[in-house]
Amino acid sequence: MTDQLVIGGHPFNSRFILGSGKFSLEIVKAVVENGGAEMVTLALRRANRGGEENILDYIPKHITLLPNTSGARTAEEAVKIARLAREINCGNFVKVEVIRDSKYLFPDNYETIKATEILAKDGFVVMPYMYPDLNVARDLVSAGAAAVMPLAAPIGSNKGLSTRDFIEILVNEIAVPIIVDAGIGRPSQACEAMEMGIDAVMCNTAVATAKNIPLMARAFGLAIESGRNAYLAGLGRVLTEAEASSPLTGFLED
Amino acid sequence: MAVKRTDPMVYQPGMEIITSDILDKVLKNVDNYDYSKVSAREVEEALKKDHLSMGDYGALLSPAATPYLEEMAKKAIIETRRHFGNSIGLFTPLYIANYCENNCVYCGFNCKNKIRRGKLSLVEMERELEAIAKTGLTELLILTGESRHHSGVEYIGAAVKLAAEYFSTVGIEIYPLNADEYAYLKKCGADFVSVYQETYNLDKYQQVHLSGPKRVFPYRFDAQERALMGGLRGVSFGALLGLGDFRKDAFATGVHAYFIQQKYPHAEIGFSTPRLRPFINNADNNPNDVHEKQLLQVMLAYRLLMPFAGITISTRERAGFRDHVIGMVATKISAGVRVGVGGHEQEEKGDEQFVISDPRSVTEVHQMILNRGLQPVYRDYIRV
């Protein structure tokens, strides 16, 4: 049985998307390999092509790059950054991030929809980072988003699925892949997200702040796989009281 | 004969007055802050919280918090790593001129101090910029003394334009401007503005700023707000530690930044923690009661108040201190520093503002960052 994640027509075997901005470049390769990630985000603002400490030199070549537009405060800036990413051969994928809140780093859903529309028309595979709002998710899909990336909790907070109920609604209602981004702090939370039927999990801080970063990447990779398998297997009901083994109404004859 | 000094609350001609209640709010908070009354229990309570109230923040800056420095550091390192990961930003300052019209008693550039004055021509500036860019740095901080005559806004604008050709991020640490002038410098390519209030105590402020535009307290105070009105991306705050009551000044600095962030939530907030340093003709200038322990306490309190804020550690501090605070609390470090006019490529055209404590090159600081298990970050912004 093949269970692939398909984003914008591109199949992936791994459902773990790794953020790369918070740990040392020398271990990027080990982290990617241990986590089994096939897609790695990178902040284009950090891609110092030809300069010192360029992250692009450290990401293995077979990995799909997911450049993000971090630093953008408006749709216009996000569009420009995405186009720059394409110019320096980072591919067609782009994670749209439009943030004008320095404290919580919450996405600006309105500007995100605008940027998504422009970039999707421009041929990008657009994966917008968003605050989990059903109407916005629908608008993003209409605007051409290839996936939506709702936040579980504020970036870096490691608080887990604080927005669980709202994300669950997106899982039920939205046809494109739902990728939980931001706030996942433990492998168990990533596993829980996958059990809910979320299509993939992206994480950065939780891995980057571990003592043994490659090992934590591996733990996340396994948790995500495990959660996915549980979802596919169909979770049993959690019973709060004893259940009769034969139907209580089985005696009825007509 | 006693010299009659001007009222530091009265604006000088040409200084823009904006409508803002932040000054009043900050001074009110500072007036109510009595660190001598803080108990150990209040410090412990503050340490348990994720979001500090002003009272909690004050507690962490109090003498009662001194025995809790290790706990504060443990909490700070978690926050710093959470928000910045392993990344340590690298930059260097470029002083383009040291003419100054202010008489500030603690500063080597003060107009009464007999030092060699100079300013870089655009040709000299370009040579400096090229030399700095060759070190791999992509972030530059441009500094001047305060002289609209020798280093006017047009001159600074020309410097910023030139710097923006070589550097992806350009900060300015210059005299306070009006909002339209900040907008002009933004257009030239400036990203960040640093303005340090030095002290938030008005009496002390007028004792140490004897004359010149800097004597006007509220015009300086509102500089960050005018910079944000002018469209700058971020602003930095700082008190010159050792000048006045450092606990109250640090408290005020944090409160100031807090209210600015509340009003301008998109603004990137930064802190610097300069301590007084000796300068030419004043070898005894020193940070008084702000020893390294107190300095660290201030830095930790800033971090815990605003876990998302950038904190810069300058070459005013010794290498050993700088090496240990990066990653724990500081997120940005200068390297290859010259604090005279120019000096990166050619001989300095003017004397230094103060005596630096850490002369290491970019390569040396880069290696130190790696040795500490951290990641030197050269570029962290794309100008689009």
SSE blueprint and pairings:
The complex is a heterodimer of chains A (254) and B (384).
Chain A: E1 5-7, E2 10-12, E3 16-18, H1 28-35, E4 39-43, E5 64-68, H2 75-87, E6 93-96, H3 109-121, E7 125-130, H4 134-142, E8 149-150, H5 164-173, E9 179-181, H6 187-195, E10 200-203, H7 205-208, H8 213-233
Parallel strand pairs in A: 3-4, 3-10, 4-5, 6-7, 7-8, 9-10
Antiparallel strand pairs in A: 1-2
Helix pairs in contact in A: 1-8, 2-3, 3-4, 6-8
Chain B: H1 22-31, H2 40-48, H3 54-60, H4 69-84, E1 87-97, E2 103-104, H5 122-134, E3 139-144, H6 153-166, E4 169-173, H7 179-188, E5 192-194, H8 202-208, E6 209-211, H9 217-221, H10 223-229, E7 234-237, H11 246-263, E8 268-272, H12 292-305, E9 310-313, H13 319-325, E10 332-334, H14 362-371, E11 375-377
Helix pairs in contact in B: 1-11, 2-3, 3-12, 4-12, 5-6, 6-7, 7-10, 11-12
Provide a descriptive summary of the structure in words.
- The complex is a heterodimer of chains A (254) and B (384).
- Chain A is an alpha/beta fold and 254 residues long.
- Chain A has a single domain, classed as TIM Barrel (Alpha-Beta Barrel), CATH 3.20.20.70.
- In chain A, 34% of the residues lie in helices and 15% in strands.
- Chain A contains 8 helices and 10 strands.
- Chain A has a 5-stranded parallel beta sheet with strand order 5-4-3-10-9. A 3-stranded parallel beta sheet of chain A has the order 6-7-8.
- In chain A, strand 6, helix 3 and strand 7 form a beta-alpha-beta unit.
- In chain A, helix 1 runs parallel beside helix 8 (213-233) and helix 3 runs parallel beside helix 4 (134-142).
- Chain A is globular and about 80 Å long.
- The N and C termini of chain A lie far apart (43 Å).
- Chain B has a single domain (71-377), classed as Aldolase class I (TIM Barrel, Alpha-Beta Barrel), CATH 3.20.20.70.
- Chain B starts with 21 loop residues before the first helix and ends in a 7-residue tail after the last strand.
- Chain B is globular, with a radius of gyration of 20 Å.
- Chain B is of the alpha/beta class.
- The mean pLDDT of chain B is 93.
- An 8-stranded parallel beta barrel of chain B has the order 1-3-4-5-7-8-9-10, surrounded by 6 helices. A two-stranded antiparallel ribbon of chain B has the order 2-6.
- Classes of the chains: A alpha/beta (254), B alpha/beta (384).
- The A-B interface holds A 21-25, 43-48, 51-53, 71-73, 77, 80-81, 84, 100-103, 105, 156-158, 204-205, 208-209 and B 78, 81-87, 136, 138, 168, 234, 261, 265-269, 306, 308, 366, 370, 373-382, 384.
